[in-house]
Amino acid sequence: MSASEAPRVIPAAAVPLHRQLGVTDFELDEIRARLGRDPNDLELAMFSVMWSEHCSYKSSKVLLRTLPTAGPDVVAGPGENAGVVSIGDGLAVAFKLESHNHPSAVEPYQGAATGVGGILRDIFTMGARPIAVLDGLKFGDPAAPRTRHLVRGVVRGVGGYGNCVGVPTIGGELVFHPSYGGNPLVNVMAVGLLEERHLTRAVAPGPGNLAVLFGSATGRDGIGGASVLASATFGEDDPSKRPSVQVGDPFAEKLLIEASLELIQRGLVEGLQDLGAAGITCAVSETADRAGTGILVDLDAIPRREEGMAPFEVMISESQERMLAIVRPQRLDEVVEVCGRWGVPAAVIGRVTDDGLVTVVTGGVDDRGMPRPATEVLAAIPAAALTSDAIVYDRPAQHPTHRRLAPAPGAPESASDHLPVRGMDPGAVLRGLLGSPNLGSRAWVTTQYDATVGSDTVEASERAAGILRIKGTSKGLACATDAVAGVGAFDPYLGAALAVAECSRNVLVTGARPLGVTNCLNFGDPEKPEAFWQLSEAVRGVGDACRALGLPVTGGNVSLYNESPDGRIVPTAQIGVVGVLDDVERRVTPRFRQAGDIVVLLGEAVPGLAGSEYAALAGSAVEERLPSLDLAREAALQAMILAAARAGVLASAQDVGGGGLAVALAECAMWGGVGARLSLRVSAEPAVELFGESPSRIVVTVRPADLPRLAALAAEHGIPLEPLGEVGGDRLQIELVGGGAAGAAEERGANVADALDCALAALRHAWEQALPRALGDDEFTPPPGDG
């Protein structure tokens, strides 16, 4: 029987089958054009998942092609399971950032857990041992019961999977914003280490080679899970989505890691691919297309854990912890032996062919992949039609008709009386910011993660970048992930560019050299012109920032249709950066180190409070502007700070980000357990200087004898430098001086604005209690020395 004559495998209904599967009438015509005939039901199901937004990137591919991807250290870039960059001495680092937003909104624990499992498989599929996880989490109002349910489930899911599989979670980002109330974001980044000689590609070369499926058996969990959930909007608590969420087993994943890495290191596989979205269909079609071959799949040979599964269920199931290996027939016994020793079931499910087709048969091959006499063809599709020749859209983009510069969605309409810009009590503002959900301690989250398993973690948790040592060398890796959604809400281009700059800056302040960028672009429905405009502007921002900073984009993910009945999320470009430290023992930390060190501000503030945490707390005038980003100045600052770190000039360094300069100084003081006596020149408004989030600024400390060397480096790179004062005491004291400070409190008979003067103990108390209080957890006790 030919594929076109195969029996229907999905029950008919009043609504045409292709529409039930999310395939449009236009796309059905395109499928017919590629096949030269009507697809049968199994083929239509395979096309529906492979042409989904999640698998095909059909709306974003035209934009992603504009990103810079080349670089002298890039070993593997976009199109592979993960980006791989050389770090010298025959070693390389693999890293990638991905989303599991919609599954996590439906079932937060399993959605987050399987998000971790999936990104880890992307890493070890390349031949790299996973060594770290970071997460970028976005939720709505922390006081809302649904938000609290989601936060608790997602954090438990990330920690539960990562802790059990033995990979440390070393950092990340947690943000609350009203737009995420109906559609949370769960972005997970994984990092792995490999010898370059063991780099493995997801290809299926060599007709006659065997397709071996190993790992967990195939079930109905995850039928159309990520591929469907991430390709359409849905209502809150939609019960039709719940069966689609995958179920993870971290202990099975641990065995899969060890078996896969041994197979790679012994040279037993010709290609390797994990099974994630679209399951077996995706794995066989992508590996075949990349190699210019085909694959014949024997449906009967696929191990299942449920009876009565229809062919389409087997082919598109997203059951977790499964891998596809391409194996030479003469190496099969060794592959089966390795898998058996690790307790991982393995089965030959097909063979590589030379016809370029993904052919699904029943009773088609024996245990060596050879055809049996009686073969029933259920599907026959050109591999390219499912992958590289999948449909691509050039969507219309339209600038929003009405764009308000301020206030941010959900922020007060105007500055509140108790936190005025002029004549304010800066100490009260600082305590308010440190006590806010977005800037408070993350210990409530990080204490649920194992940050030290594997014994490679040097710095984790509250630091801007997590740092790992590379055993057997002096080197280290610095890893960070950031987004600037507050600004993206007003200007998606600027928000995305700022995210690249801030994330790379967070890696740089450790003394590491950034190697490359991975991204996860979280946006709304691309079929809506305004949403597609937001996406296109963000991609432009990422590209411009990466080109200015000399960073290649090595891969990533696009998550669209992030909308709910409450509306569209704010444009969110989540960025991940990995950098290399030549000597991990010479890393720079943000903590103030010792009394007498000089505190120095590199860079200068620019006007603009819109999109800042200060504006979210205190409100901002409707005419308030966004801070500007000078990419040339940012590149110069980054070059200067790297030179200073390599010269051994820096005692500490901290990026100025959320909450502005005052929050950065408070963090340095709290984490170091020592205060500072500082004087800050105010040229405009105190709120801008203290709490504005102008980019391209770094707070450093140096020994007094090293200040001239730092000043020389700053002058060489054209970076403004302002000594602020000295480290010492148990208080953070900032005197405001200059023209902007004069007359700020004239109504009260003063000729200068109030100084900021806070005990570190009071700052720490506000900071430590912020998140537990916001989430209604009165029983949480911060660990000693948190931060």
Protein model, in words:
With 787 residues, the chain is α+β, with helices and mostly antiparallel strands. The protein is 32% helix and 22% strand. The chain has 25 helices and 28 strands. The chain has a 7-stranded mixed beta sheet. The protein has a 7-stranded mixed beta sheet with strand order 23-25-22-26-24-27-28. Strands 1-2-3-6-4-5 form a 6-stranded mixed beta sheet. β19 and β20 (567-568) form a beta hairpin. α7 (108-124) packs parallel to α8 (145-165), α15 (426-434) packs across α25 (760-774) and α19 crosses α21 (631-646). The protein is globular, with a radius of gyration of 27 Å. Residues 1-12, 225-231, 234-243, 404-423 and 742-752 have low confidence and may be disordered.
Write the layout of secondary structure elements.
Blueprint: H1 17-20, H2 25-35, H3 41-50, H4 53-56, H5 61-64, E1 74-76, E2 83-88, E3 91-99, H6 101-106, H7 108-124, E4 129-139, H8 145-165, E5 169-176, E6 185-195, E7 210-215, H9 225-229, H10 250-265, E8 271-274, H11 279-291, E9 294-298, H12 311-316, E10 322-327, H13 332-341, E11 346-353, E12 357-362, E13 376-382, H14 383-386, H15 426-434, H16 443-446, E14 457-459, E15 466-469, E16 476-482, H17 485-488, H18 492-508, E17 513-522, H19 529-549, E18 553-559, E19 563-564, E20 567-568, E21 572-581, E22 598-602, H20 613-618, H21 631-646, E23 652-655, H22 660-672, E24 676-681, H23 686-691, E25 698-702, H24 707-717, E26 721-727, E27 731-737, E28 756-759, H25 760-774
Parallel strand pairs: 4-5, 9-12, 17-18, 24-27
Antiparallel strand pairs: 1-2, 2-3, 3-6, 4-6, 7-10, 7-11, 8-10, 9-11, 12-13, 14-15, 15-16, 16-21, 17-21, 19-20, 22-25, 22-26, 23-25, 24-26, 27-28
